Amino acid sequence: AADVDAIIATGVNCCAPADVLAAVQTAVAASGKPAIAYPNAGEAWDADNHQWVGTSSYDLSLVPSWRAAGAAHLGGCCRIGPATIAALAALGS
User: Fold this and answer.
1) Is beta strand 71-74 parallel, antiparallel or unpaired with respect to 44-46?
2) Rg (CA), the chain
């Protein structure tokens, strides 16, 4: 990715929010490019019972550390809805 001009960012998608910081740090260090961070809500999928379990751990107070580590493109994946995306957008850059 570091040597491919068409790749403008690297990062992480659909992981627990607690895993984002390390992933962003790794992505930036490996590629030298801005990072992408699109974590899920932090719940776990119970395949046996076909349901989400646990509680959301998508905490907007984590966002400044993701940005400081190089995340330039932020969003959400599974179980992240419009209200969370709007709150994320309201934080600005």
Assistant:
1) unpaired
2) 14
DSSP 11-43: EEESS-GGGHHHHHHHHHHHHSS-EEEE---S-
d(CA 73, CA 57): 19
Contacts (Cβ under 8 Å, ≥6 apart) of 35: 9, 10, 11, 12, 23, 24, 27, 28, 66, 69, 70, 71, 72, 73
Burial string for 4-36 (b: 16+ CB within 10 Å, else e) reads eeeeebbbbeebbbeebbebbbebbeebebbbb
pTM for the whole structure: 0.88
| pLDDT tens sequence across 31-79 | 999 999 999 999 999 999 999 999 998 999 999 999 999 999 999 999 9
